[in-house]
Amino acid sequence: MSGHVGDLSPKQEQVLQQFREVCADLLRNDDDDYYCLRWLRARNFDIQQAKEMLKKSLAWRKSNNIDSLLTEYTPPPFLAKNLIGGLYGVDKNGGPVWIYPFANVTIKSLMRGCTAKDILTLMAYRCEIGVKVMEEQTKKLGKHVETQTVIFDFADFSMMQALTGDALAILGGFLRMYEANYPERLQHAFVINVPSLFSVFFNLVKPLLNGTTLQKVSVYGKDQWKEALLKQIDPDQLPKHWGGNCVDEKTGDPRCNSHITVWTPIREDEYVRRNSLNGADSVNGADSVQSTTVSVERRSCLEVPVTVDQGGSRLCWQFETEDHDIGFSVTARASGSGDEVVVQPWEREDSHLRPRDGSVFCQETGTYVLKFDNTFSACRSKKLTYAFQVIPPTTNQVIADA
């Protein structure tokens, strides 16, 4: 039996009920059998493994504010223009279709203006959009839609770039995120126009994918992929460039570039705002704030308390170090509470390579603490420049999480 609703063996039915019982404290009232079975199928109906997977995913969603991405997050302008890909149409099962055209992408140029974390946040945002579309399609079609189709087009892309540290870190981070938190959401992945070097790259990626996911991946060179796509996607749901009938309603582009971001050369002035905090006139696009420069001594941690007196505010920050990396995290202590909670997990940041910025949504009033951690350094102090600002809830501008 497939392990899907309506196709369960008696044993699978029993495991489903047991899973609901052991996960009673994790499941919401609207988490139906479709939801539970995705976690079970991802772990071959092993109840404890599926529970642990669900528990870790819920912790990830909480620590990264995933539930508020669709309402609180706006992609930074740099990434909105330059991170390729987009959503266009639906497949024959009713699920959304994502298309990622890698033509002429220059990863080194992209990484000058953003961090891997910036990209992963935007990719999580896109994952949440995909889930929302599935829910909308379920209501529209009167049948359950829980998967999506993805097309990766490597035409006119140098695969040597995919073997760089930045590229592998981003792809590895995304695949781990997707496999751990969006199980059984893939209908099919088409990888098309692959060059000869792709096999080397794919062998590095395979260990990050489970067996079920690998079975849903089809790889094509320059031929036969259009026929394969049209077996899964009707031509009126697919851009003309990829074998369908659609052109962009605004531009007439056969790639439907109003919906799917395609690579264009990055202008030098697009990098300006992120190149230096010293003398910068913004923090995440907010109004002018004063920066502070200090020395964080070896084996020490600088804590910067910030008072937030209006719930619904957003705390924004930006920082850089003169030489070498530094640890960074954010904690919060709600008003009237002695308990400190982590709202931005600790991470070593390469802030000597480019400024780091970000923000958190402050649901409760209280004291939020920016922590700059140099305790791991036995010999070096770090010259740190930082700035922060609290944006009140009355401000219409939405600041993007990093």
TrEMBL record:
Residues covered by the CRAL-TRIO domain: 75-250
What name goes with this protein?
Putative phosphatidylinositol transfer protein sec14
Supply the InterPro entries for this chain.
CRAL-TRIO_dom, CRAL-TRIO_dom_sf, CRAL/TRIO_N_dom, CRAL/TRIO_N_dom_sf, GOLD_dom, GOLD_dom_sf, SEC14/CRAL-TRIO_domain
Against Pfam families, the record matches this protein to: CRAL_TRIO (PF00650), CRAL_TRIO_N (PF03765)
Give every GOLD domain span.
289-390
Q: Which SMART domains match?
A: CRAL_TRIO_N, SEC14
Task: Look up the domain of life of the source.
Answer: Eukaryota
- Extract the Gene3D superfamilies matched here: CRAL-TRIO lipid binding domain, GOLD domain
